[in-house]
Design a protein that fits this description.
The protein is of the alpha/beta class. The chain has a single domain, classed as Response regulator (Rossmann fold, 3-Layer(aba) Sandwich). Helices cover about 35% and strands about 15% of the residues. It is built from four helices and four strands. It has a four-stranded parallel β-sheet with strand order 2-1-3-4. It is globular.
Length: about 110
C-alpha cells in the first residue's frame, strides 16, 4: 500500500540532470505532493533512509557507479526501504532500457513490464 494513503505525501525525485529534477519536482508539487530532490543514487538512499518517501521517481541512466539500476537494487535489498514503490524514468530508447532492466536479479521480487 502506498504510504501516501497513510498521509505521507513525500515523493523522492532522483535525476542527475538539474532541469529534469526541477521539471518532475514541479509536476509532483502541482499535484499536491512534497518533492524531495536528489541528484544521484547515494544522495537518494541517504535521504530515503532519514526521511522515507511514499514513492521514488528514479532516473535509470545516471553517471557514476551509483546509477539508477544499482540504486534500484539497493532500495529493493534494504529491508527499511524495500517497501517503497519506485517509478523508473528515462529518456533512453526502449531497447536499451529493457536491456538495463534485465540486469536486475529476478530474485528482487519486483516485476518489470516493458
Amino acid at each position: 500500500m502506498l504510504d501516501v494513503m497513510m498521509g505521507n505525501k513525500k515523493i523522492l525525485v532522483v535525476d542527475d540532470e538539474r532541469d529534469i529534477r526541477i521539471f518532475v519536482s514541479t509536476v509532483v508539487e502541482t499535484l499536491g505532493f512534497e518533492a524531495i530532490a536528489a541528484n544521484d543514487g547515494a544522495q537518494a538512499l541517504e535521504k530515503a533512509s532519514s526521511n522515507p518517501p511514499a514513492l521514488v521517481i528514479l532516473d535509470v541512466m545516471m553517471p557514476r557507479i551509483d546509477d539508477g539500476i544499482q540504486t534500484y537494487q539497493q532500495f529493493k535489498t534494504n529491508p527499511k526501504l524495500s517497501h517503497i514503490p519506485i517509478i523508473i524514468l528515462s529518456a533512453i530508447a526502449r531497447k536499451t532500457f529493457l536491456h538495463s532492466i534485465r540486469m536486475l536479479s529476478p530474485r528482487q521480487g519486483s516485476e518489470v513490464q516493458g
